[in-house]
Design a protein that fits this description.
Elements: E1 5-11, E2 15-21, E3 28-31, H1 36-46, E4 52-54, H2 60-63, H3 66-73, E5 76-80, E6 90-92, E7 97-100, E8 103-109, E9 118-122, E10 127-131, E11 134-135, E12 138-139, H4 147-158, E13 165-168, H5 173-183, H6 188-202, E14 210-211, H7 212-218, H8 227-232, H9 240-253
Parallel strand pairs: 3-4, 4-5, 5-6, 10-13
Antiparallel strand pairs: 1-2, 2-3, 7-8, 8-9, 9-10, 11-12, 13-14
The protein binds zinc ion.
Residues 57, 59, 62, 113, 132 line the site of zinc ion.
Pfam families: HAGH_C, Lactamase_B
Subunit structure: Monomer.
GO biological process, one term: methylglyoxal catabolic process to D-lactate via S-lactoyl-glutathione
Length: 254
């Protein structure tokens, strides 16, 4: 199969726009719709016509352009069954799967950031669109879910193959990196990643995408079971979900 093409570009102050394009059929999906103009500009630059929006959750900075893009292109909007999404055509829930350009897209329910947040996984392409559940070196804030729910959601993503390429919703990586080293100061892989992120950002480059393997090695929010982090937090006997909750609470205060 001809590989799908991906276009990544900035939207709003720190959101990512992502377009997923099949060169054979012309099908083009926008992962969320944070802002109309940059999405239309990216489509025009590539000569692509939007056919789908895959919505991950209801926050305005992920759905603001849904109706405008639907008006303009007549797109099909596929989004979370448990949330209210502008212009939604097809509601999907965890465990569902649908077709995009002849490829299965699996829906993973990841409550925590919002109550009905979903991620889109293309197993054949080894691609995950994690939006505001998993960031490079971070995870979404818990607006509607409990730490235990978010931990369970992150465990589902961590169980995907390590080579899975992960696109995420926001360029928060530099501040995430500065926090990560405070809870995992002796992690050599993290230290070298922080240096790499500092030089990427200094050059104005994106830190997306990442991979599941890289996040498991360096993202403290996936490393609640790690003995060194537990020792550092003096939480050797706590459950993984409790360690995760402590890391999330520290990040909220950071
Ligand atoms: Zn959000």
């Amino acid at each position: 199969m001809t590989p799908l093409e991906i276009d990544l570009f900035p939207c709003r102050s720190d959101n990512f726009g992502v377009l997923l394009h099949d060169p054979v059929t012309g099908a083009t999906a926008s992962i969320d719709a944070p802002e109309e103009k940059p999405i239309r500009d990216a489509l025009a630059r590539r000569g692509w016509t939007l056919s789908h929006i895959f919505t991950t959750h209801h926050h305005n900075d992920h759905v603001e352009a849904n109706l405008a893009l639907k008006d303009r292109f007549g797109v099909t909007i596929i989004g979370p069954a448990r949330e209210t999404i502008p212009g939604i055509d097809r509601k999907v829930d965890g465990g569902d799967s649908f077709d995009f350009a002849g490829r299965p897209v699996e829906v993973i329910l990841t409550p925590g950031h919002t109550a009905g947040h979903i991620c889109f996984h293309l197993p054949g392409e080894r691609l995950l669109f994690a939006a505001d559940t998993l960031f490079a070196l971070g995870c979404g804030r818990l607006f509607e879910g409990t730490p235990a729910q978010m931990w369970q959601s992150l465990e589902k993503l961590a169980a995907l193959p390590e080579e899975t390429i992960v696109y995420f919703g926001h360029e928060y990586t530099l501040s995430n990196a500065r926090f990560a080293i405070t809870v995992d100061p002796d992690n050599a892989a993290l230290a070298s990643r922080v240096a790499e992120i500092e030089s990427l950002r200094a050059a104005g480059a994106f830190t997306a995408p990442t991979t599941i393997g890289l996040e498991k090695a360096t993202n403290p929010f996936l490393r609640a079971a790690d003995p060194a982090i537990r020792r550092h937090l003096r939480m050797e006997k706590a459950s993984d979900a409790e360690v995760f909750a402590e890391i999330r609470a520290r990040k909220d205060r950071f």
